[in-house]
Every structure is written in C-alpha cells, then in structure tokens.
Amino acid sequence: MLPKEELLKGIENRETITRIIDLAEQALRTWEIIQSDFLSPPEIFESESIFQKLTEVEIVAWGGYPQAERKRLAIARSELPIDTSNVELAAINIEGNFLFDTATHRDFLGFMLGTGIVREKTGDMIVLGEHGAQAIVIPELMEYLEMNLKQVRSVPVTIRPIELSELKIREPKKKELTTVEASMRLDAIASAGFGMSRSKMVDLIDGGDVRVNWKEVSQASYTVKTGDLVAIRGKGRLEIGEVAITKKERYRVQLTRYI
C-alpha cells in the first residue's frame, strides 16, 4: 500500500489525487497499465509531484499533442515500460456550418456535456471558427457522441472520428526576454515578464489571479526559481528560465512568455 496520507500533505486537489493514488495501487496489485480520466493542469502538476517521490510507480501524462492542457495519465509498476502510446485517446470533428451562428469553446463543450457525459471524459477542444471544432475524448465516448451530439447552438452537426495527427493545432505564440532584477520576488519577475507595472502585478496577486506551478500564490514576496511556471488568468503564462548573478549581485533572468 502507498503512504496515501503522507502523499496528500499540502495537496489542493485532494479528491482527484486520492483517486489517482487508488489507481496507482491498482496498477501495483494487477501489474497492468491503468489509465486515469482527463486531468486539469493543476491536477497533472500535483500528480507528477507526488509520483516523483515514489520509486515503485511510473506515470506518463498525454493529451494528444505536446501543448495539450488536459491530459490522461498512464500508471504502471516501474518494472513495466510505458510511454505516450499507452495513453488511449480518440479525436473527433464536430462538423457544421457556423458562418451565421458562431460557436465558442464554451458552446461546444456545453452541448457535449449536455448529452450526459462528464468533463473528466473530455480533453482539449480546438475551435475551428465557421467550420466547427475538434475534441479529444476517451475512446469509449466515440460512438455515444456520434449518436447523441446532433446540434451546437442552432447549428446541426455531425461527428466524424479523426486521427490525432489530423488535429489542427495552433502553436502557442511565445516571446523570449531577459530581465535584471534585485531579487527573485514574484511581483518583480512577473511584472517584467508580462510587461506591466509592479503595482498592477501586486493587485493581481492580491486578487487571487496569479498561480505558480498551478498553485495560487497570495504573497508578492514569494520567491520564484528556474523552471517555475507563472500563470495569470486571461494573460497567459511565463516560464522562468536560467538565472545568473551579475557583477553587481543582481539577478539576470531568462524568461519565456506564452500568449
């Protein structure tokens, strides 16, 4: 048995991570590769952080393409080699003429969930404008959606299975920059990376809009480090790269901003 209570210390998404630990114990008992439902980025981060502490279990997270936000986990004993091919995914086209009734991500997702499925069974959604959308789902849902998803907003739709290679992925825009700061405080580094005043950044932090490694941080003085990911609701993400100390003992920080 895994040390569940110890692993759950400091975990925000306790219900989800408890289920993942239960799946890991199942994988240990059965010597099978077990798969989770789709997880959100904070849930994936916490799952990966706890499994780094374990030598007997391996996990692989995959959502169908490298930049996918929602992913499933494949979980297995460390003796069993696993990779992304062990994560079972399916993709669909939701086809219709949306030229005169534009549908958003929320519309497509809402009508999918309106057929009776739950969010945990669906991955990322890629909106294609007037041509419809593409969605990643667990394979067991394919036939169900073909039979039950007939309309989005006022537009009749048809569901067509596609290969993951047919997903029309848009590469995220990114900007590389360097800043020199007196400290590695969150408000200093994030304000430089997002191109806003430090006071505005403090307001965002105080308002609960800023997360570091998918955990909400409420202190502007929080110290960030290489590898950290800073996310601000509605403004994208910032990855902290290499940090060097200048001759004047300031911090030269490489940053990558994803929009």
Keywords:
259 residues, four-stranded antiparallel β-sheet, 3 domains, 7 helices, six-stranded antiparallel β-sheet, Alpha-Beta Plaits, 29% strand, Ribosomal Protein S8, Chain: A, domain 1
Element layout with pairings:
Blueprint (H helix, E strand, L loop, with lengths): L3 H4 L6 H17 L3 E2 L5 H11 L5 E6 L9 E6 L12 E6 L9 H9 L8 E6 L4 E6 L4 H7 L2 E2 L2 E2 L1 E5 L11 E8 L4 H9 L3 H9 L3 E3 L2 E2 L12 E4 L3 E10 L5 E8 L1
Antiparallel strand pairs: 1-3, 2-3, 4-6, 4-9, 5-6, 7-8, 10-15, 11-12, 11-13, 13-14, 14-15
Helix pairs in contact: 6-7
Structure characterization notes:
This protein has 3 domains: 4-86, Ribosomal Protein S8, Chain: A, domain 1 (2-Layer Sandwich); 90-166, RRM (RNA recognition motif) domain (Alpha-Beta Plaits); 174-258, RNA-binding S4 domain (Structural Genomics Hypothetical 15.5 Kd Protein In mrcA-pckA Intergenic Region, Chain A). Helices cover 25% and strands 29% of the residues. The protein has 7 helices and 15 strands. It has helices at 4-7, 14-30, 41-51, 105-113, 142-148, 186-194, 198-206, and strands at residues 34-35, 57-62, 72-77, 90-95, 122-127, 132-137, 151-152, 155-156, 158-162, 174-181, 210-212, 215-216, 229-232, 236-245, 251-258. The protein has a 6-stranded antiparallel sheet. It has a 4-stranded antiparallel sheet with strand order 5-6-4-9, with helices on one face. Strands 1-3-2 form a 3-stranded antiparallel sheet, with helices on one face.
